[in-house]
Amino acid sequence: MRSGRAPTLEDVARVAGVSRATVSRVINGIRNVDPQLHEVVWDAVGQTGYVPNRLARSLVTRRTGTVALVVSDSEAHDDDPFMSRFFADPYFGRVVGGLMSVLRREGVQLALQIVGTDDAKKRLVGDLRSGQADGAVVLSLPAVDPLPRMLTDGGIPAVLIGRPADPVPIDYVDLANDTGAALAAEHLLARGCRRIGMISGPADVPASLDRISGFRRAMARHGHGWFPTASGNFTQDSGEAAMRALLAQDPALDGVFVANDLMALGALLALRSTPQSVPDDIAVVGFDDSSAATAAAPPLTTIRHPLEDMAAEAARLLLARVEDPAMQVSSVIYEPSLVRRTSA
Amino acid sequence: MRSGRAPTLEDVARVAGVSRATVSRVINGIRNVDPQLHEVVWDAVGQTGYVPNRLARSLVTRRTGTVALVVSDSEAHDDDPFMSRFFADPYFGRVVGGLMSVLRREGVQLALQIVGTDDAKKRLVGDLRSGQADGAVVLSLPAVDPLPRMLTDGGIPAVLIGRPADPVPIDYVDLANDTGAALAAEHLLARGCRRIGMISGPADVPASLDRISGFRRAMARHGHGWFPTASGNFTQDSGEAAMRALLAQDPALDGVFVANDLMALGALLALRSTPQSVPDDIAVVGFDDSSAATAAAPPLTTIRHPLEDMAAEAARLLLARVEDPAMQVSSVIYEPSLVRRTSA
DNA sequence: CTTTCGTTGGAGAGCGCTTTCCGAGTCTGC
DNA sequence: GCAGACTCGGAAAGCGCTCTCCAACGAAAG
């Protein structure tokens, strides 16, 4: 097969016997080109196996047809295995899947970027500003993250998945985490549970915070101003430990809301080595409706989190903002729903 | 903050009072520059907030600092939800995590590409040839895929994860799937199982094929030339169905090897509604040691598949080939191991 | 004091593409 | 039959960068 240098516009022009400009016009479907030549040019393209060089094109058009998926981490994790845990989590894949479902049919590519240090974030913004990508979808993990602000200051089209920790005029999609947690509380209460505990996530990231406050509010509304709590870091192991801690606080617990499915899996595991059975003695409600939920034994009653849809919406929002940078800043909040399975 | 046009080399040169060439030399750390000027230039860089334009740089250096992660699918799936299932699977995330663990510290970026149709594959090769990325890591899903050959023909540095279906002179990393399956067979046999069945994956993809043949061979070696089989498509649901089918063939089964953990989860689910208990009446061995294995009830005995390590090795291999395209084609095969948990 | 060499920095070409600007044709309408 | 309006295609100027080539200069050598 043809090897060596890839054919350029110039080559096609030579073969077709026209100028570079004309070939460019034909390729980009610009009017003002004689149908005759049109055909001649396409023939030449076929003959030479020409493929436009995206780099060169982007350099002049200032459009890359690429968006970045930025995973913004904190400095602290820079070299620990946290990241690999993050990728193994279904969360990441669901986001990518959702994004790709819309980007793909627009012919837009996704470039993955991981930034930990502030320095890396600065570099990222610089790269983005110089046209490395048309925009960014941001997954901001740390509790407090300068990146969203940097992005807006730099004038970079960007959409967050999950609300920013501090108010920044930036587009985002999020889940009504508080409503979801309230749903869980009400389900547990309606089921007749009287001694309910909660296993929460870290107390500093927005999504986790919202689940805590939503649950707390709903419980208070039903007269449970206080309830035992333990917290984990969204991993299965931490959920298992938290369940034990909770049981130590109140061995007669008859219901527990766990802030994500992975930790709920851990909780279920911990419960398996106690006399209590799920859901008869103690009901368990998870959060996310991830694949772990159906895999669990017993299958987890959980709060559905339409992450794919949210990611898809984020992609759409980003594309729209790229198209019209002056567009009004907007956010779209998804409503969670309760998925009843066996565990509660 | 400074907005509008991003500063260019030209701007820095003007501020520093030197020529573009000199700034370029300083930035790229080329010697032959008076330490005095060196400092002046860096000052100017700081002042202007200059960040080199990667596009422009790549255009001339023919190096992008980006590798593509190509998910090669078949035309058939082009518009069905298969892809989103694929992303939700821990498999994808583990690969990304493994790749990033090495790419990140080399400052190399990952660009995600999904190609279904032959046309898209052709376009991809063209893009790659014209320097869109320095190389590609390929996840080839379909049973028979023209992409690997296209890549080598196009002279694109590429590494497959999982062996190609038909022999192609291309680098790849793979797992000794047959050995893993044999491990499972031997474990089941050593445990005293006499009526063993297998739930396999699709009969046309290499990894699945190897697991089937490895298991079959090991069983034959121990006098079990025939055993009941059912097949699924690597999803939990299909595993559940396959388990029922197997039980219908032989209700007295006392052991089953399931070709991946997700299907094993399904099998466990199916067994929960039968009188048999796992592992006492029937032992179950999975494959992959994915996060699903520990989440299962009972926790799954399974074959460990060091996917992160394999992906990391693929990244290293690719980087090496990019550096030296003439390097000899090589493949590295990882050895699986048995992880004993409770299910067998 | 001239020659030679090594060092340093500038000019400028060129990576492959798009796009503005023009000039050369082609058509109408009077 | 010719001005004016259009259509079409080419020349060429960049996009922001790297890197080769060369001029200039100072120092070392003869």
TL;DR of this structure?
Two copies of one chain form a homodimer. Chain A is of the alpha/beta class and about 350 residues long.
Question: What would you say this structure looks like, in words?
Answer:
Chains A, B: Keywords: DNA-binding, Transcription, Transcription regulation. Chains A, B: It holds the Pfam family Peripla_BP_3. Chains A, B: Residues 7-61 form the HTH lacI-type domain. Chains A, B: Residues 8-37 form the HTH cro/C1-type domain. Chains A, B: InterPro entries: Cro/C1-type_HTH, HTH_LacI, LacI/GalR-like_sensor, Lambda_DNA-bd_dom_sf, Peripla_BP_I. The structure is a homodimer of 344-residue chains. By secondary structure, chain A is α/β, with parallel strands linked by helices. Chain A folds into 3 domains: 9-52, lambda repressor-like DNA-binding domains (434 Repressor (Amino-terminal Domain)), CATH 1.10.260; 66-174 and 308-333, Response regulator (Rossmann fold, 3-Layer(aba) Sandwich); 177-304, Response regulator (Rossmann fold, 3-Layer(aba) Sandwich). Helices cover 46% and strands 16% of the residues of chain A. Chain A contains 14 helices and 12 strands. In chain A, strands 2-1-3-4-5-11 form a 6-stranded parallel β-sheet, with helices on both faces. A 4-stranded parallel β-sheet of chain A has the order 7-6-8-9, sandwiched between helices. In chain A, helix 6 packs across helix 14, helix 9 runs parallel beside helix 10 (206-221) and helix 11 crosses helix 12 (261-272). The longest helix of chain A has 17 residues, at 90-106. Chain A starts with 8 loop residues before the first helix and ends in a 5-residue tail after the last strand. The mean pLDDT of chain A is 91. At the A-B interface, helix 4, helix 5, helix 6, strand 2 and helix 7 of A face helix 4, helix 5, helix 6, strand 2 and helix 7 of B. Strand 2 (109-115) of chain A pairs antiparallel with strand 2 of chain B, so a sheet runs across the interface. The structure holds a DNA duplex (30 and 30 nucleotides).
